[in-house]
Amino acid sequence: MGSYDTFDDRFGSLVIGSAVVERLWTGGRWTEGPVCVPAAKAVVWSDIPEDRLLRYDETSGAISVFERPCGYHNGHTLDAFGRIVACEHSNRCVSRLSFDGRWETIVDRFDGKRLNSPNDVVVKADGSIWFSDPSYGIDSDYEGHAAKSEIGTCNVYRHDPRTGETTAVVTGLDRPNGLAFSPDERILYVSDTSLVDTPAIHAFTVAADGRTVGDDRIFAVSEVGFFDGFRLDLMGNLWTSSGDGVRVYAADGTLLGLIIIPEAVSNLCFGGPKRNRLYITATSSLYAVYVNAAPANGRLQSVEARPI
Ligand code: MG
Q1: At 31, is the secondary structure helix, strand, or coil?
Q2: How far is the centre of ligand 1, averaged over its atoms, from the C-alpha of 63 (Å)?
Q3: Residue 9 burial (CB < 10 Å; 0-12/13-18/19+)?
Q4: How far does residue 191's CA lie from ligand 1's centre (Å)?
Q5: What's the gap in Å between 222 CA and the centre of ligand 1?
Q6: Which end of the chain has the lower number of beta carbons within 10 A, N or C?
Q7: CA distance 186 to 181
Q8: pTM reported for the whole predicted model
Q9: How many whole angstroms from 12 Cα to the centroid of ligand 1?
Q10: How far is the CA of 305 from the centre of ligand 1 (A)?
Q11: Which residues fall inside 5 Å of ion ligand 1, going by CB?
Q12: What spacing in Å lies between the alpha carbon of 175 and ligand 1's midpoint?
């Protein structure tokens, strides 16, 4: 199943021509937010309208329900300790799966007002949590609970778990969605799934203080469907969801190639023991394909290395 379209010779070194795209599971309504949990040897992802999390066992290949109901989760990532950090539509918060199995709310308000519906999240090397907050989880009852926005705009926020401070770092986009840092964390990439502005991935220069962003430039414009979630590899290439598969862009913005997926892709993550297996959530299904790349943020820090 699946194949590749090459637009630049560099793409050949990033994929394995003989590696086929596998459909590991289907039966969802809108899948999103895959995260590989190395300690569990598992991939967890969301089926948002069904209000459930699913789990793929990387050892046995078994699929099971990880949690249901779950609060209409959307995006996930790991923190430096390997804990899952989640975007919850129904609780309108970013939460974390603690070591005792409880979901702890990390942030659910900005300036005293409830967040809209956090969509995607990344944890920076300094431990700060950056997340997007469009309105998809409150626009209707399908992916959450219909409600009016208290904030009135859709922003990207930075939350500092040490101080509890939350600041709006990107305020000029219509529907900020997927986000990720370049390997050196000097660029913050944010996709805008706007219906009124040009749907694109923006590249923001991260300020010297590491806490704010400056210049905004268009990195790539959506050609088919939307860019939703994406990840960076160690070389700085950006692997993004799109309407026709996974599109890979070089750091200079050149479209290198396409991994063709038969459903609209929402998000992806690197996983497997060598971190060289790409897991892809696409509409109703979970797909996987081995690639010749490794994630930019694939190394977890030991608990001992960080002050608690
Ligand atoms: Mg998203």
Answers
A1: strand
A2: 23
A3: exposed
A4: 9
A5: 15
A6: C
A7: 7
A8: 0.95
A9: 28
A10: 32
A11: 119-120, 177, 228-229
A12: 10
The Å distance, Cα 278 to ligand 1 centre, comes to 17
pLDDT given at position 304: 47
For the chain, domains (ranges, CATH) are 30-236 (2.120.10.30)
Q: Give the length of the chain.
A: 308
- Quick check: 201 pLDDT over 80? yes
Tell me the per-residue pLDDT of 104-118, one tens digit each, with 9 for 90 and over. 999 999 999 999 999
Asked if 110 and 157 touch (Cβ cutoff 8 Å), the reply is yes
CA dihedral 246, 94, 135, 28 (to 10 degrees): 50
**Contact between residue 18 and residue 12 where contact means Cβ atoms under 8 Å apart:** no
- Rounded-to-integer distance, Cα 278 and Cα 245, Å: 12
**Percent of the chain having pLDDT more than 70?**
96
Which tens digit of pLDDT belongs to each residue from 206-242?
Answer: 999 999 999 999 999 999 999 999 999 999 999 999 9
